């Protein structure tokens, strides 16, 4: 590959903003400085040169609710690149009783046409000696994060004893547990009551998953993680109740991370009241969209640092797939898209409004994610030696989001009609230009798996602390004779 230099731009990282050129060779950043030259020049005049976005939470071609999510690794990563996201982390979902390694092989097959780099989380969907043993092999293969669904009763859900066993195993292996925090028993019960009362439309999806359902599960997972002596990552934190649990845990010194989604930051519960069934059903996801008070809490969390990352949970379904749930909201496949829109929408609603600084934007879309998932500074950084996953961001470029122009294969977009200002001029994946303004040059199969090492520092610190504070017998010299 010829060498490249990104010239005349302003580099923006999670902690600095400065003017410099960035030289790329062999897919890596090789030099940062003034007046650099190379075989090819990418002009970044008027632009910010930032680490490419990392989406820590996507479901591409996910087997779920009797179907598969519509975007696969090819269309999903192409959508990501179009919006400045240069890496995604997908969830491997073993079927009940299925070997984790067998499921891994299926996901490797699915991701062969990825246009950008990717990594995996492994879901713990059942428990047994085989799972316990295979978790070690999974960590050896570069997957150090294990996901637990506290909802989807009868399908993906695990219960507390399984979660506690798995969290302890994570602790021993230097792995990080993730949870989907919703009380699946309460949801199942509310669903049945709503249906029995004739509430079968998509709005009932939201009624069946109030914030308390999420807050309770977040608190429970945090306490279980604390007892298992392991950090915890809570996916799609959508409400104040869950955020409050995370804040409280962090104040007590626990390593707990919270991940709001771009959907929850900007879309609200009124979407489910729309008179058009399709419109409302297309917004059905778990947790559901919330009201403004919850949205303000999530923004405040990003500002204050009690919430660390912004994801999409990209899990798109076509109109026909959503219609599986006509007459019974519990059969509407749960999930929405967002891969192409996360960065422009967060920039527009966050940076352009003054809610986030540019550096905070980089932190929550890239750097914090790379650190929390243990792939920093190979990803999430503009430093010599890092992968050249870079977005050259033009703060003046504008568009109105429209399904007609999107990369995702579905027919609609939950952000339809939103005007964004701030879009990629170039997106580079390991040094290759995949996006040049609206021209898509992404190459299926270019993406590679990113292996992530087990966590050393936090797990070692936690086990050292546990050892020091373990219950110990007090040795006494003179023990009095038993009283009479
Ligand atoms: O509704 C959602 N979020 N669908 C994807 C699966 C999950 O729970 O993350
Ligand atoms: Zn059990
Ligand atoms: Zn989930
Ligand atoms: Zn998800």
UniProtKB/TrEMBL annotation:
Catalysed reactions, semicolon-separated: 5,6-dihydrouracil + H2O = 3-(carbamoylamino)propanoate + H(+)
Pfam family, one: Amidohydro_1
Gene Ontology CC terms: cytosol
Keywords carried by this UniProt record: Hydrolase, Metal-binding, Zinc
Record's comment on post-translational modification: Carbamylation allows a single lysine to coordinate two divalent metal cations.
EC category name: hydrolase
Keyword Hydrolase: yes
Cofactor: Zn(2+)
Modified residues (N6-carboxylysine): 147
EC number: 3.5.2.2
GO biological process terms, semicolon-separated: nucleobase-containing small molecule metabolic process; pyrimidine-containing compound metabolic process
The Amidohydrolase-related domain, residue ranges: 48-433
Gene Ontology molecular function terms on file: dihydropyrimidinase activity; metal ion binding
Domain of life: Bacteria
InterPro entries: Amidohydro-rel, Hydantoinase/dihydroPyrase, Metal-dep_hydrolase_composite, Metal_Hydrolase, Metallo-dep_Hydrolases_sf
NCBIfam families found in the cross-reference section: D-hydantoinase
Quaternary structure note: Homotetramer.
Known function: Catalyzes the hydrolysis of dihydropyrimidines and of the structurally related DL-5-mono-substituted hydantoins, to produce N-carbamoyl-D-amino acids.
Family membership noted in the UniProt record: Belongs to the metallo-dependent hydrolases superfamily. Hydantoinase/dihydropyrimidinase family.
Protein name per UniProt: D-hydantoinase/dihydropyrimidinase
Lineage: Bacteria, Pseudomonadati, Pseudomonadota, Alphaproteobacteria, Hyphomicrobiales
């Amino acid at each position: 590959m010829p060498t490249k230099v990104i010239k005349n731009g302003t580099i923006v990282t999670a902690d600095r903003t400065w003017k410099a050129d960035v030289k790329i060779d062999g897919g890596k950043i090789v030099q940062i400085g003034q007046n650099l030259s190379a075989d090819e020049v990418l002009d970044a005049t008027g632009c910010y040169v930032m680490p490419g976005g990392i989406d820590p939470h996507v479901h591409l071609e996910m087997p779920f609710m009797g179907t598969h999510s519509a975007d696969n690794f090819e269309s999903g990563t192409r959508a990501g690149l179009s919006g400045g996201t240069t890496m995604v982390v997908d969830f491997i979902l073993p079927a009940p009783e299925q070997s984790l390694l067998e499921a891994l092989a299926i996901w490797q097959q699915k991701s062969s046409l990825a246009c950008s780099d990717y990594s995996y989380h492994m879901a713990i969907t059942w428990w047994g000696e085989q799972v316990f043993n295979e978790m070690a092999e999974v960590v050896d293969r570069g997957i150090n994060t294990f996901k637990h669904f506290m909802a989807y009763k009868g399908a993906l859900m695990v219960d507390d004893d399984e979660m506690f066993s798995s969290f302890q195993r994570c602790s021993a292996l230097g792995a990080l547990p993730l949870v989907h925090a919703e009380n699946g028993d309460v949801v199942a019960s509310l669903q049945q009551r709503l249906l029995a009362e004739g509430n079968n439309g998509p709005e009932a999806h939201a009624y069946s998953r109030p914030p308390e359902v999420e807050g309770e599960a977040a608190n429970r997972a945090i306490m279980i993680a604390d007892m298992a002596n392991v950090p915890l990552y809570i996916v799609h934190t959508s409400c104040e109740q869950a955020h409050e649990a995370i804040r409280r845990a962090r104040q007590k010194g626990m390593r707990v991370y919270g991940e709001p989604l771009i959907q929850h930051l900007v879309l609200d519960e009124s979407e489910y009241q729309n008179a058009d069934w399709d419109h409302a059903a297309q917004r059905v996801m778990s947790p559901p969209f919330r009201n403004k008070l919850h949205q303000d809490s999530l923004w405040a969390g990003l500002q204050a640092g009690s919430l660390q990352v912004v994801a999409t949970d990209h899990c798109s379904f076509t109109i026909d797939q959503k219609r599986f749930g006509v007459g019974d909201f519990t059969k509407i496949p749960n999930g929405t898209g967002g891969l192409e829109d996360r960065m422009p929408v967060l920039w527009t609603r966050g940076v352009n409004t003054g809610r986030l600084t540019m550096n905070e934007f980089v932190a929550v879309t890239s750097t914090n994610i790379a650190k929390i998932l243990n792939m920093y500074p190979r990803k999430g950084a503009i430093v010599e030696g890092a992968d050249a996953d870079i977005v050259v961001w033009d703060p003046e470029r504008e568009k109105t989001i429209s399904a007609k122009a999107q990369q995702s294969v579905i027919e609609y977009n939950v952000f339809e009609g939103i005007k964004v200002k701030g879009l990629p001029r170039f997106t580079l994946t390991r040094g290759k230009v995949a996006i040049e303004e609206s021209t898509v040059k992404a190459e299926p199969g270019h993406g590679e798996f990113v292996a992530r090492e087990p966590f050393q520092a936090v797990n070692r610190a936690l086990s050292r602390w546990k050892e020091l504070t373990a219950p110990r017998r007090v040795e006494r010299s003179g023990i009095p004779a038993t009283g009479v």
